[in-house]
Amino acid sequence: AQSVTQPDIHITVSEGASLELRCNYSYGATPYLFWYVQSPGQGLQLLLKYFSGDTLVQGIKGFEAEFKRSQSSFNLRKPSVHWSDAAEYFCAAHSGTYKYIFGTGTRLKVLA
Amino acid sequence: ETGVTQSPTHLIKTRGQQVTLRCSSQSGHNTVSWYQQALGQGPQFIFQYYREEENGRGNFPPRFSGLQFPNYSSELNVNALELDDSALYLCASGGDGSTGELFFGEGSRLTVL
């Protein structure tokens, strides 16, 4: 069955530290991949997306993600975290049918 | 700003009641999808409409139903509400491009008492 896994439920980092959020997918073929951020009580904001081509994708707010086919992963990174990055992050995928499968999310806490 | 708007933003219902949630998609987007996000969970696919026909459904019972209208608006209807239906309901629309990218609204938060 198709699935998206985010192994880390909670991550805590200090402001200014680097960040990596993990995402693994299980699909028959390489799906389209997305990272979203959700602040409390808000909807989903798209950070970045991967469809094909260059495996390092740049997004908004200084985020980037790297697609690794061999590891079925699409990890999100940021070199220096800001306190405003505290939120919940969702990895999502679909295989071209618009039916998105989301991971369970990673809640990021940023220490001042 | 995704161009997808949802109403109401918050509402409270009691168990057994019925609810209708509304969504206005981007002009030209023929696909609309609805997702349920329970507290502390990722969004779950409810169903999808394309040109006013349902063309995909997740693991939700028939009391969850929908409509899509020619003017790019849509509805999610839930009958016989249960406590577990309390969630954020997200509407998303997409065009006819091959990438299947969806644009999400801010959601309607439903509380069932």
Would you mind describing this structure in some detail?
The complex is a heterodimer of chains A (112) and B (113). Chain A is mainly beta and 112 residues long. Chain A contains no helices and twelve strands. By secondary structure, chain B is mainly β. Chain B starts with a strand and ends with a strand. The relative contact order of chain B is 0.35. The model of chain B has no long low-confidence stretch (mean pLDDT 92). Classes of the chains: A mainly beta (112), B mainly beta (113). At the A-B interface, strand 5, strand 10 and strand 11 of A face strand 4, strand 5 and strand 9 of B.
| Measured distance between first and last alpha carbons of chain B | 32 Å
Shape of chain A: globular
What is the rounded Rg of chain B? 13 Å
Order of helices and strands of chain A: EEEEEEEEEEEE
- Tell me the number of strands of chain B: 11
Low-confidence stretches of chain B: none
Biggest sheet architecture of chain B: 7 strands, mixed
> Strand-residue fraction of chain A?
over 45%
What's the order of the H and E elements of chain B?
A: EEEEEEEEEEE
Q: Name the chain pair with the biggest interface and residue counts per chain.
A: A-B, 23 and 26 residues
Mean pLDDT of chain A: 93
Brief characterization of the structure:
Chain A has strands spanning 3-5, 10-14, 19-21, 24-26, 32-38, 45-50, 56-58, 64-68, 73-78, 87-94, 101-102, 106-111. Chain A is mainly beta and 112 residues long. In chain A, the strands form 3 sheets. In chain A, strands 2, 5, 6, 10, 11 and 12 form a 6-stranded mixed beta sheet that branches.
